[in-house]
Specification:
138 residues, mainly alpha, Sufe protein. Chain: A, two-stranded antiparallel sheet, 6 helices, 53% helix, globular
Length: 138
């Protein structure tokens, strides 16, 4: 699923195009700003991702064909960008496609792994685990 996947290749190309990590962080923040806001009642405990230092909410659903619908938010700019990145990576896929994605490999290809603090890495892993677990339930 990894190599040749159009969504993954597009993300890798976008981040490769950017120069230094300041530009990449700015791009990540812009991705987060572009997210559709959650409704106030969606900022609830049921949608909150445990294991993140920042507050993170993921609203998970499936469309009529069983493809993943994901929306999210965070109270931290960079983390909100990471939420947007994961939405691009996982949304619109079948549960089998989603669980086949090795997010660590994708993030390594983008170069994120080495530039995130340990807390952000742990939070990102918690978000990925929540999405993969939920996808696997279907």
């Amino acid at each position: 699923m990894q190599t040749g996947d159009p969504v993954i290749e597009s993300l890798v190309d976008e981040f490769d195009f950017l120069g230094d990590w300041e530009e990449r962080y700015r791009y990540l923040i812009e991705m987060g700003r572009a997210l559709e806001p959650l409704k106030p009642d969606e900022h609830c405990d049921a949608n909150k991702v445990q294991g993140c230092v920042s507050q993170v909410w993921l609203v998970l659903g499936k469309d009529g064909e069983g493809k993943l619908l994901i929306r999210g938010d965070s109270d931290a700019h960079i983390v909100k960008g990471l939420v947007a990145l994961l939405i691009r990576l996982y949304a619109g896929r079948s549960p089998a496609e989603a669980t086949a994605i090795d997010a660590r490999e994708v993030l390594a290809r983008i170069g994120l792994g080495e530039h995130l603090s340990p807390q952000r890495s742990n939070g990102l892993a918690s978000m990925v685990a929540r999405i993969r677990s939920w996808a696997g339930e279907g």
